Structures are given as structure tokens and as C-alpha cells.
Backbone:
């Protein structure tokens, strides 16, 4: 259950970014989780609710974009993916396959509330 | 009140990854080769490491070890019988080691005098996969009693390994272990990595393991 550690790190990073930009409340956080990232989306969602409690992220929505595993064969170029039984060899020629996507563990963006009286940067 | 979207575009493990990168630079500059041992609980990490520390010291190498457990310093005491400097990292319930724990526990070690730093991770095939500990080589262990399909069940950690060690091969016949199938499964998840078959207790297959470690150290320099 290292998702709790990851959730605490996520809360710290987002809170710092929000406060640095004058945000007073975080309403949404978007992350990208790959199929072979080692993080279980459901466990992260559960940990998020606990980790955000009492912070500027309290009550915010965690949006998780799941990235399926996609492999590409280094030899024949065959592209394949099978999340259920990942095999890291090409199903066609048996050569080692390269992970194109599926290892993602990314913080993408956050939505923050800021006081209307203080325009952020430009008036445009 | 106005809402605003802020792009962040950073890794969720940014803090650990930054610490690991700093630590890796430091270890490399001092000529330390770091090995991270990962496996299920009970696979035999401590026994393999105990024998390895003693043997490498006998060959004139300077070694040190950090060992992670939730509680007790039993493993550190067991490893210290080799004569190598050993530190126990107590995680108090945490399921993995992270780069910060490694850095903090290296404080006071004379790193300039060390060639091999072994890190015995917490017994767990899930969480340690997500934490870079600044190692040069991640070694995943699989004992014959665990079954040949472990790599297929835990693909993330096997896919992150640089070498695999099949342990307790002296028990292979008793549990009808199919070594060819285990090798096939490891290579299905991590094609091409070296696979060693050992029994640290009986001294079987250990020479190949020592040679792998020694060849890596030479390559690193």
C-alpha cells in the first residue's frame, strides 16, 4: 500500500504549487497512471481522500487517466498490448518488446480557486 | 472567486526521483556500486547477502549493507556476522524503502572506502518497484518454493530488474520446481536479463553470482 506515501507526496506537490500561485483552495487534481506503473488507481483514490483531509486539497476531485500498456517490437515493429497478461516479448517474432506507454506516474494539472479581486498575471 | 487550471506536468515520484538522482551522482563519484535486492518475504535475501558479504570481503572487496524491515534488527545482526558494516533501516510498517531512507542511513558511512553497497529491500514484490534507490543494479529473487509463475503475477517488479536470482535450488526436487519454466517466465517479463540459480546455504551456483557482481564493478569503472 505505497499508494498512501504517493498520495502524501502528491498533496505536498499540489499544495505548494497552488499556494505559490495564490490559490486558496484546490478543487481538482488530474493524474496519469500507467498499467505497469506499480500503482493501483483504486488504492490511490482511497489514499487521496485520507491524505487531502485538512489540507487545501480537502474535498477536491481526483481525476485519474489510466494509460494502457503498449509495447512495440524492436525487431519487426509489431505493436501490441495486453493488460491482462503482460508479456514483454513480441507475440509475432519473440524478440524483446519495448514499453511505449504504461509506466506513467504523472501529475498532469490542478484546478484552483483564487480570490477574484487579485487577477493572476495579465488582465486578458 | 475564480477558478484556474494550472499545468503541473511532473512525476508523482518527483521528490524520490530527485533524491535518487543526487544520491546516484554521489555514489558514482565515489566509485560505489549499489545493488538493490528485492523479493517476497522469505525468499532468502538475507542468506544470499550474508554469504555474499563474507565472500566478497574474502576476495578483498570493501562492502557495506543496508537492510530494510518493518520491525526488528534481526537481519542486520545476522548480516553483521559476515564482518561487514551493516545498518538496519526500520520502516515501522512502511512497505518499501525510499531514496530518503537510504540517504539518511548512509550518513556516517565512509562511502569513499566502499566498492559495493547492498540494499536489502523490505520483502514485498509490489511497492518497492516504484522506488528508485539510486541502485546500479536491481536484483529480483525468486525461491523455488514460490512457484514458477511469480514473474507473471508480479510483472512490474520483474520488468524493472537487471538480474534475477532463483534461490533455494537445493529444495527444487522436493517441490518439483520447473527451472526451465521459471526461466521462460522471467524472460517473458524481462527479456535478456541474466538468471542465476543458487543455494546460498549449500554454496550452489554462488560463483556465477560473484562473477556477475565483479564483472559489473569492472564495467562501471
Residues:
Amino acid at each position: 500500500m505505497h499508494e498512501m506515501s504517493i498520495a502524501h507526496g502528491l498533496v505536498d506537490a499540489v499544495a505548494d504549487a497552488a499556494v505559490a500561485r495564490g490559490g486558496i483552495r484546490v478543487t481538482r487534481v488530474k493524474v496519469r497512471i500507467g498499467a505497469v506503473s506499480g500503482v493501483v488507481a483504486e488504492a490511490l483514490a482511497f489514499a487521496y481522500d485520507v491524505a487531502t483531509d485538512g489540507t487545501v486539497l480537502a474535498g477536491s476531485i481526483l481525476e485519474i487517466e489510466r494509460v494502457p500498456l503498449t509495447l512495440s517490437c524492436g525487431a519487426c515493429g509489431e505493436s501490441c498490448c495486453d493488460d491482462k497478461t503482460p508479456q514483454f516479448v513480441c507475440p509475432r517474432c519473440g524478440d524483446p518488446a519495448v514499453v511505449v506507454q504504461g509506466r506513467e506516474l504523472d501529475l498532469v494539472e490542478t484546478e484552483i480557486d483564487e480570490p477574484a479581486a487579485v487577477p493572476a498575471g495579465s488582465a486578458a | 472567486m475564480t477558478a484556474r487550471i494550472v499545468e503541473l506536468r511532473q512525476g508523482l515520484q518527483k521528490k524520490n526521483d530527485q533524491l535518487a538522482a543526487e544520491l546516484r551522482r554521489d555514489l558514482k563519484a565515489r566509485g560505489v556500486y549499489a545493488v538493490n535486492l528485492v523479493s517476497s518475504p522469505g525468499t532468502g535475501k538475507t542468506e544470499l547477502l550474508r554469504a555474499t558479504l563474507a565472500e566478497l570481503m574474502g576476495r578483498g572487496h570493501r562492502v557495506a549493507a543496508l537492510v530494510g524491515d518493518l520491525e526488528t534488527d534481526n537481519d542486520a545482526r545476522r548480516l553483521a556476522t559476515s564482518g561487514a558494516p551493516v545498518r538496519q533501516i526500520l520502516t515501522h510498517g512502511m512497505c518499501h524503502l525510499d531514496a530518503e531512507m537510504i540517504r539518511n542511513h548512509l550518513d556516517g558511512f565512509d562511502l569513499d572506502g566502499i566498492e559495493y553497497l547492498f540494499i536489502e529491500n523490505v520483502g514485498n514484490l509490489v511497492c518497492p518497484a516504484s522506488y528508485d534507490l539510486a541502485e546500479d543494479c536491481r536484483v529480483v529473487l525468486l525461491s523455488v518454493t514460490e512457484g514458477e509463475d511469480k514473474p507473471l503475477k508480479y510483472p512490474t517488479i520483474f520488468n524493472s530488474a537487471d538480474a534475477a536470482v532463483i534461490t533455494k535450488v537445493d529444495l527444487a526436487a522436493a517441490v518439483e520446481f520447473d527451472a526451465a519454466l521459471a526461466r521462460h517466465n522471467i524472460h517473458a517479463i524481462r527479456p535478456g536479463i541474466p538468471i542465476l540459480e543458487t543455494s546460498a546455504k549449500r554454496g550452489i551456483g554462488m560463483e556465477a553470482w560473484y562473477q556477475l557482481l565483479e564483472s559489473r564493478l569492472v564495467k562501471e569503472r
